[in-house]
Amino acid sequence: MGKLKFLAAALLLAIVFRAYGQATQQVVDIPSRPGVTQRLLVLSPPTPKAAVVLMAGGHGGLQIFPNGSMKWGEGNFLVRTRQLFADRGLLVAVIDAPSDRQSTPFLQGFRQKPEHAEDIRAVIGWLRQTAHVPVWLVGTSRGTQSAAYLASELSGPEGPDGVVLSSTILSDNKSRPVPAMSLEKIRIPVLVVHHEQDACPLCAFAEIPALMSKLAGAPKSQLLSFTGGENRGDPCEAFAYHGFNGLERKVVGQTANWILGQ
Asked: Fewer CB within 10 A of the terminal residue: the chain, N end or C end?
């Protein structure tokens, strides 16, 4: 992305700057494709050590307002733990659907498209120029279909420095699950985070070994597995084991430690 586009991104900053713990929060619109912007909710700690692009599951249409609130997704595991990531010294960018996908079906049917890669390429570039730190993609549930696809398609200066897959979509008869992607193309560290009691039929822990075997080409890959916590509601939703309910600090802490240790 050229300097003019970055200047445009700066001019498109939403008018919201506030203390959020020790982090500053702002809403940013990044030009990504002709006539399209990608909105981020950004939490910036004083001296970030790395940046994480948090990709929610479901349809992914958070519809972030200029004041930092959102129409959907506040309960999502990654969205509700964004401050915990910032507390660990990570610059946090919570990703919305792009401006041309701000209505149903939002990111459904879009997570494995070249246009999605263009949007996130622009985000990675903006984060690198803004913070001068490594940039990681972190997806949960359906967000892992974005993160894994992007990690396999974007590389070098335009790609991420690492990827985290939490509550990975391991099987699916409606779209391509993560193990069916070209994971052998990934040449960056990969962390897989999964709850052993996840009862979502698309995320059975028994299928994790097959996923790990497909990550053999990555310079480093590791599984962090968890048990316990609380299990409420739909097994595929954010407050079941699927969303690490009750384990947020433990999961985020170990994930952040792994990222910062690479």
From this structure: C
| Residue 130: other Cβ atoms inside 10 A | 18
Residue 53 has pLDDT above 90, yes or no: yes
What pLDDT score was predicted for residue 45? Answer: 95
The Cα-based distances of 188 to 30, 133, 218, 228 in angstroms read: 25, 15, 6, 30
The one-character DSSP state at 212 is H
Q: What's this model's pTM, rounded to 2 decimal places?
A: 0.92
Query: What are the beta bridge partners of residue 166?
Result: 140, 193
List, in order of start, the domains of the chain with CATH numbers.
3-260 (3.40.50.1820)
The order of strands in the sheet holding 18-20 is 18-20, 23-33, 36-44, 90-95, 50-55, 135-140, 162-166, 190-195, 221-226
Confidence of residue 22 (pLDDT cuts 50, 70, 90): low
Token digits of residue 120: 């996130």
| The residue to which tokens 């494995």 are assigned | 112
